[in-house]
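User: tokens in, sequence out, please.
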């Protein structure tokens, strides 16, 4: 066989192998295609931010949301944070407005919700049986869904995990020590 023919066939085979190699590299994917993430199947993810505040600022915030969320025609009240949570209001009874005072001791539950133990309840100057009045309030007033009253235990639960603010923000309590003015919440900002 002629040297030129042999060289031609070797060059032809090398060119064919090169073309096959290039073609295979073009048509074989470089990576496994990424799977699309279905956000509907995933748990909602939120980024936590630790927020500390003082009694005055939190008092203003609570009163703002109470005005927006409750039916102020039936029960008008405001909150003041001092050594306890003090709720002052006006109850319409017997076609007359009567002042009301409620003194609560706040407790942070392990799940980040708040529990308020009712220490004292008075209407006018008369101290009333707490269980009876809480039961009356629970049945006769339109309270927000995240507020749950257990009249037998004299407890009001504030379920922060059921309270979603505008833009999907939610919160959980970390500390609520009014005597030390140590009030810390975790603000949860959802990711889109």
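Assistant: Sequence out:
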């Amino acid at each position: 066989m002629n040297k030129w023919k042999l060289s031609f066939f070797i060059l032809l085979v090398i060119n064919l192998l090169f073309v096959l190699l290039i073609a295979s590299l073009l048509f074989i994917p470089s990576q496994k295609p990424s799977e699309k993430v279905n956000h509907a199947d995933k748990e909602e993810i939120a980024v936590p931010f630790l927020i500390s505040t003082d009694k005055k600022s939190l008092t203003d915030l609570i009163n703002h949301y109470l005005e927006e969320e409750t039916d102020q025609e039936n029960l008008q009240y405001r909150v003041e944070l001092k050594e306890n949570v003090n709720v002052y209001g006006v109850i319409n009874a017997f076609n007359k407005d009567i002042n009301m005072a409620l003194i609560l001791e706040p407790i942070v539950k392990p799940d980040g919700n708040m529990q308020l133990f009712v220490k004292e309840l008075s209407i006018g100057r008369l101290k009333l049986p707490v269980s009876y009045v809480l039961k009356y309030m629970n049945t006769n007033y339109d309270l927000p869904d995240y507020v749950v009253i257990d009249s037998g235990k004299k407890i009001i639960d504030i379920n922060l995990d059921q309270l979603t603010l505008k833009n999907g923000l939610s919160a959980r309590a970390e500390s609520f020590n009014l005597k030390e003015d140590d009030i810390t919440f975790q603000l949860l900002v959802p990711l889109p």
